Structures are given as C-alpha cells and as structure tokens.
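WARN no homologs supplied; continuing
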Amino acid sequence: MPEYKQEFIDFAIRTGALKFGEFKLKSGRISPYFFNAGDFADGETISKLTNFYTETVINNYFEEAILYGPAYKGIPLVALTAAKLYEKYRLKYRFSYNRKEVKDHGEGGSIVGTKLTAEDNVLAIEDVVTAGTAIRETKAVLAANGGATLKAMIIAIDRCEVINEGDTKTALQTIAEEEGIQIFPIVTIHEIIEYLYGREIDGKIYIGKPEKEAITSYLEKYGPKKKIFLS
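OK structure emitted
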C-alpha cells in the first residue's frame, strides 16, 4: 500500500474523522464505522487533508484537466489541492467552483475561477459519493456553463458497498459506469482494514478481532455479490 494511503488512515484516526462503533447512515443501514469529513475544520487539518487529495491526483490521474470543487464542501478542497499541486510538484492546475445561486450581475453565471469551455476536461474534488447526486449536479452545472466534460472525481473513502442488496458491483462502480466517469478514492474500506487490523496507534488498537468481524459481516451483507455462472 502506498505510504500516502497509510498516512491518510493514521490522520483520519488521529483527527477523529474515522470512527468505529455503531452508526446509522442516511441509507438507514447500521454501519460499524463512520467517516466525517466535517471534522477537518481548522487550518492544520484541512491543509493535511488536501495533501492526500494531491497525492491521489498524482498517482491516478494524468490527463490534462481543470480541477473543480462542487459547492460547498468541494470549494476549499479544490482550492487547497490546486495550491498543493503547485507547491509540491510545480504543477499549475487551473481550478473552478460553483455558486449555489446564479449571479445576475457583473460577469454573471454560477462558475467562479477558470472559465470552462466545451473543450475542457474536468476533475472534480469531493469528500464522498453515495448515490451519484453530486455527480449529476456537477454535470448539470458544467453543461450550463460552457459544456466542459466531467472525466473523473476524487473522493476520500470508498465504502465498497452496493446500492441495492444483491448487486454485483459497488455503488461507485455502478455510478462511474452510468455516468461515464472515473472515481478515485484516497483509500477503500478494505485498505483501512488491512492497515489498521491489530495495529496500535497512540496506544490504542482501533480494529481488533471484534471490529474486523463486524466490518466483514457488514460487507458480506452490503458488499457486491459474486456473479454465479450456470453451465
């Protein structure tokens, strides 16, 4: 596992953004873990967080693209990721973000930053993707503001869950195929288990046998099911 992924998991644990226990999700599912990007709420943590988005761009996405931050959470993420790409790698990624309310004076429109055109490819920076709503909203904004193409999105964690029980593909795989984009997580829940199982961080083991069994059981229920081929 790349070092930046290990560092991200350590960071998520130490900030309290990654928690283990029992949590009710928007879907109604009871999850044995929870990730809350809203816990990155000061200059130090948001700066460190965007280091990991930066490394994910470098390690996964090589096409020329304009970075885009969907309002609201994506706005600070995209600005700081663009800054880190320049500071660390001297890569001058242009970036844009949207307003929720269309501006009716001055330059108008809902896009702030780089003006987008139909020839541009866009790489979006987000915290999470669950049902694909943010992707469809982003596509609509791009279509109404120059027609740029959403090519990919980077998120923090892939929970590796399905949309509906019994699906053979994860939610992110399904959404990516339906929307015709690539989705790159900083880490997956499987990588989190692999790295944290039995590992002590600041004197505490966060994933021991009970936690691993709980997550494994959860994924057996809500993870993708293997296709059965009949002869």
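The longest strand covers residues 149-158.
OK
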